[in-house]
Amino acid sequence: MRIHQLSVLDALASLKSTATGLSYAEVERRLHEYGPNEVEKVVRKPLWLRLIKEFTTLFSLILWISAGLAFFGEWSDPGQDMAKIGYAIVTVILVSGLFSFWQEHRVEQTLAALRKLLPQQAQVLREGKVTQVPANRLVPGDIIHLEQGNKIPADCRLIEAFGARVNNAAVTGESLPKMRGAGPTHTENLVDSKNIVLAGTTMVSGQAKAVIFSTGMQTEFGKIAHLTQMAGEEASPLRKEIAHLSRLIAILAVMVGLLFLVLGWMVNIPFWKAFIFTIGIIVAMVPEGLLPTLTLALVLATQRMAKRNALIRYLPSVETLGSTTVICTDKTGTLTLDKMVVRRLYLGKTFHSPIEVKENKDLVELYQPFFLTALMCHDLKEVEGHGKSTFLGDPMEVALVEMALNVNAEFSVCPKLDEIPFETDRMRLSTIHQAPEGAVLYCKGAPESVLPLCQHTITEGKIQPLDAEAKANIIQAQDAMAQQGLRVLAFAYKKLAVSYDRKRLEEDLVFIGLAGLEDPPRPEVSEALRKCQEAGIKVIMITGDHPVTATSIAEEIGLVKSDNPTIITGEQLRWFSDVRLQLALDAKEIIFARVVANQKMRIVEALKKKKHIVAVTGDGINDAPALKAAHIGIAMGITGTDIAKEAADMVLLDDNFASIVNAIEEGRAVFENIRRFLTYVLVHNVAELIPYLGFLLFKIPLALTPIQALSIDMGSDTLTALGLGAERPNPQIMRRPPRSQNERLMNWSLVFRAYFFLGLIEAIAAMAAFFFVLNNAGWTYGQNLPNQDPVYMQATTACLSTIIVMQIVNVFLCRSATRSVFSTGLSGNMLIILGVILEIVILLLINYTPWGNSFLGTAPIGNEVWEFVILFAAVMFILEELRKWLVRKRLLNLASRNGI
């Protein structure tokens, strides 16, 4: 037999303890054997290792190789400014890595302040005397004293209990306090046993004495913490996409570079010269500005999300949200307010809401004993603070007191004379108060416990016999309220004689009504769920609460609309095979109730096997393994435990499900924005590549030097690219289904548009400007031009300036792949406006300042060149607008054929 199935004496004997506690010598021996009562910290990679990781992503490695090649090129052929390129690339890697690390570490610091789930001190009985000891010095066999408000320091078996109720939400996810008693039970599951209290939970009322049977990592708390550590981290879709993109860019750059090297050999270019230019091509093909732009775009997205109450811990999690196909959400505190409220009253023979009663003074007068019972029959502690009184204790009792005072704030509390405490087997509480007319007993509890004690009832203010018909009506009313997911309490009272027999106090009571309480749903949740349905995101409720309660809330908020949703309890789930669970998850509407930690993680793993991108919410210790196993774990910021926050990728600052939907909207925008600035960056990469190919194939002067190309990647285009990364979500973005996992960041549509359309137009314009200057200066084909020749410097300046001007136009074209500039507008994004101003300033600096001329090898160009460039910019604008119009027309025709 297990400890919860034993009697109190047998439970003590099984732990070799006594009613007077352990001796100090035995405590020391057990402390040495079992270790301190502490939960090991979640294993984290060392800080230095996490810092290094930021500099060793695949894209960072490509940049390191590019920098190395640049330094090698400078060593092989000094004077080509390759060292400047190398230093600039190293700076990009360091700044991006440090910024990313700082952002994530800063968020961690804001969450690391708490981690105090277990109490610091405990009252323990040793050698017959009660003493205060640090909680980490407790051992199995210790006997501890518990009272209202205490956090339970270890897993314990109760040996005495008086009105004990425990909030298990942090461990089991159940929202309502549970009654606890000292008697043995025949329950198989230890966690559900009524004589067991678990580490990390809280006593909400009563007093108890308990013997500890598990400490530290052996507690249920510790087992869940261990399960969290064992759960593998899931790479985010964005990390996978960036890795894929990095491989593509690396392969493309190397292939083009090798092709150049082979072609150079074929046209008799000296090997070392061809090799140096190969390095230049590889550097030109790698978009060095992509990494810092991506990092900053994600940081800006996290800041926008923080304003919408979603704190992102890891930058790639921003985009993961946008890929989400399933949200597994708990109920209490996320879908609901995590606050008990009186929803319905049954007075006389009629249902009323508390608001209706408040507005009807006659009802208040007729059923005054009902409200006095709610006001006075409780175990709450009244605390003064900030000029007003608050009540601490069972949330249901707090709700009843608040309801009574709200109905009539002039109700006065009479002095308490006596109390018959709440017990597990009694299921009720009775208090005796000195009223002006004499002593009065007020009683409340479970209807099945209170109703048999009643012989009379109140109807319209008159006391009448409680006959069989009246009892049947009361039971019917109770069932109707329970079907709505309400927690039902019965109220009764009795006027006492001057002298009374305490043993017969709870006899011949007057039944006065029923109260139905619930944790009401958040008002924003219904709209948030509607948005999820429009966006093709499936929402699954996973809760530790009773199936009836869960279903009632689900129906109220619109999560369940059919008459027959699929409801699976934790007990049923124990017998499900993995295949059966995966098939069950195909149900359109599904609720999991009474589930435990490993089952929640099992559901997440099953969804991942079905190729879903899974977001999971949670606040308790029991949620931590699932939070870590999911693609994105979402912890509650207000009610969330520190272990849950540690395991999560995102923290909801307001514990509100609606904030998740807002964050998903931002996350979806991130993917689209990355595509926007990726297109923008790749366009000028083509314009940077063509001069090298022209130099090789047609033996013309190099139209753009490596340092000039880098000035675009890491100078003129940085702020405008970042502006594209910070575009606001498209209003229609939440009316589309989640993107397919097979949909690549750089797809064929993007490649065609960036490389073969916009990039080609820009490259033609840049080369045209280069030859425009050369021809005006009388250059002839085959004529060599030294690097310091003023004509050559003017021509390269024209090429560089053309690319920058074309990119000014391109940034507005890239705000949408299909919508016209006339609909997206030129305003609405301050970063783009500032970026355009920056590009104009850079144009002036590189053309008309000695410093710019010296650093980049440029020379001022004349007005006729600017007119030539602007003409090409206008052509680019017209051609892209025409392409967008054709795409919109094709989509419209496709929709028309499909009857959309």
From TrEMBL:
Keyword Translocase in record: yes
GO biological process, one term: proton transmembrane transport
Superkingdom of origin: Bacteria
Subcellular location: Cell membrane
Residues passing through the membrane, by range: 55-73, 85-102, 248-268, 274-301, 750-772, 792-814, 826-845, 865-882
Domain Cation-transporting P-type ATPase N-terminal: 2-74
InterPro entries in the cross-refs: ATPase_P-typ_cation-transptr_C (IPR006068), ATPase_P-typ_cation-transptr_N (IPR004014), ATPase_P-typ_cyto_dom_N (IPR023299), ATPase_P-typ_P_site (IPR018303), ATPase_P-typ_TM_dom_sf (IPR023298), ATPase_P-typ_transduc_dom_A_sf (IPR008250), ATPase_P-type_domA (IPR059000), Cation_transp_ATPase_P-type (IPR050510)
Record keyword Transmembrane helix present: yes
Record-stated family: Belongs to the cation transport ATPase (P-type) (TC 3.A.3) family. Type IIA subfamily.
Protein name, per record: Plasma-membrane calcium-translocating P-type ATPase
Keyword terms, alphabetized: ATP-binding, Cell membrane, Membrane, Nucleotide-binding, Translocase, Transmembrane, Transmembrane helix
Annotated coiled-coil segments of the chain: none
Upper taxonomic lineage: Bacteria, Pseudomonadati, Pseudomonadota, Betaproteobacteria, Nitrosomonadales
Record's bilayer topology term: Multi-pass membrane protein
Chief place where the protein resides: membrane
GO CC annotation terms, alphabetical: plasma membrane
GO terms, molecular function: ATP binding; ATP hydrolysis activity; ATPase-coupled monoatomic cation transmembrane transporter activity; P-type ion transporter activity
NCBIfam families found in the cross-reference section: ATPase_P-type
Record-linked PROSITE patterns: ATPASE_E1_E2
